[in-house]
Design brief:
Helix content is 43%, strand content 14%. The protein has eleven helices and ten strands. The strands form two sheets. It has a seven-stranded parallel sheet with strand order 3-2-1-4-5-6-9, with helices on both faces. The chain is globular and about 55 Å long. The termini are far apart.
């Protein structure tokens, strides 16, 4: 039986990748941090290996005994951090650690999970792709900068080692088992709970998390080493997303659109409180800066080269709302 190591296997996307691998007949080693939330792995048959991607020795132990593939899904995904150093350490140094450990253990191939956050965005709101021009100076916030630098570091180190790495760039996954939840998952949750009386004009590319997970396996099987592939779905405005949530819950969707500048004082205040409490704020200045752009992307390359396909993201919203309700998030 072929064996894969999945980093961040207990996370929202990582757990979806684990389930797709198991369904395809793989044996899975789930690489998770000691003491981490493992609810997403409770009902699946995996070999749990504890460690941290910033600890190379723990990666070597997890790969000992042979492994056929590594799916590096783990990442520090937050839109606000009090101290950026741990995020850079995890996303940049940690990713290089995983690559070097995989190469050192003789693993045949690695799939690296990047993000569309590192890609360029078109000013005319047409879908961007893997080749849309972008620089580090275009990256808004620590998360985007760290992922941009991480992808560059992985590409450079893979070339030096002549090691086959296929990079995937998911857009905005939505669906069940978003335990944290993710920033976009919080938007869906807040809308479903009636906590979004207004919105700003922005747009996202929404996709079901299970479609992204299947795209990871397709990247392993058919992706070209050194290439990257957008794994996305449909471009939707925030208003369309909120309307979709309203249609599912029966709640009235907000029709109050706020100018971006009007939310700025709330973001400043929320970040000030977060610096005291340590809890991630629901609205941030970097989030507002990003929301001024419509983050639309094309998955045409993945569809053409990998056989990637995606369903109507309204199914993802329905699955996410249903899961939040079943798990008691809407109380």
């Amino acid at each position: 039986m072929t064996t894969a190591l999945v980093t961040g296997a207990n996370g929202f996307l990582g757990a979806a990748v684990v389930r797709q691998l198991l369904a395809a007949g793989w044996s899975v080693r789930a690489f998770v941090r000691p003491g981490s939330d493992r609810r997403n792995l409770a009902a699946v048959d995996v070999d749990v290996r504890e460690g941290d991607i910033t600890d190379r020795a723990s990666l070597d132990r997890a790969l000992a005994g042979g492994c056929d593939a590594v799916y590096h899904v783990a990442a520090d995904y937050r839109l606000w951090v009090k101290d950026p150093a741990p995020m850079y350490r995890a996303n940049v140094e940690g990713s290089v650690n995983v690559l070097e450990a995989a190469a050192g253990a003789g693993v045949a191939r690695m799939v690296y999970t990047s993000s569309v956050a590192v890609l360029g965005i078109r000013a005319d709101r047409k879908p961007a792709d893997e080749d849309t021009p972008v620089t580090l100076e275009d990256m808004i916030g620590v998360y985007k900068r760290s992922k941009f630098l991480a992808e560059e570091a992985v590409r450079r180190r893979a070339a030096e080692l002549r090691y086959p790495v296929v990079t995937v760039n998911p857009s905005t996954p939505i669906g069940p088992r978003d335990v944290k939840p993710t920033p976009t998952g919080r938007v869906i949750l807040d809308a479903a709970a009636g906590r979004m009386p207004a919105y700003v004009d922005t747009g996202l590319n929404l996709v079901h998390v299970d479609d992204v997970a299947r795209g990871h396996l397709l990247a392993h099987d058919h992706g070209r080493p050194g290439e990257r592939y957008v794994l996305g779905g449909e471009d939707m405005t925030l208003k369309q997303i909120l309307d979709a949530v309203a249609a599912i819950t029966g709640r009235a969707a907000s029709n109050v659109r706020l100018p971006h500048w009007s939310v700025w004082p709330a973001a400043v205040g929320a970040e000030a409180i977060a610096r005291i409490t340590g809890r991630e704020p629901r609205v941030t200045r970097d989030g507002l800066r990003m929301s001024r752009k419509h983050m639309y992307f094309s998955s045409a390359k993945a569809e053409r080269e990998l056989g990637y396909a995606w369903r109507d993201p309204r199914e993802a919203i329905r699955d996410a709302v249903g899961w939040f309700k079943d798990e008691g998030f809407l109380r």
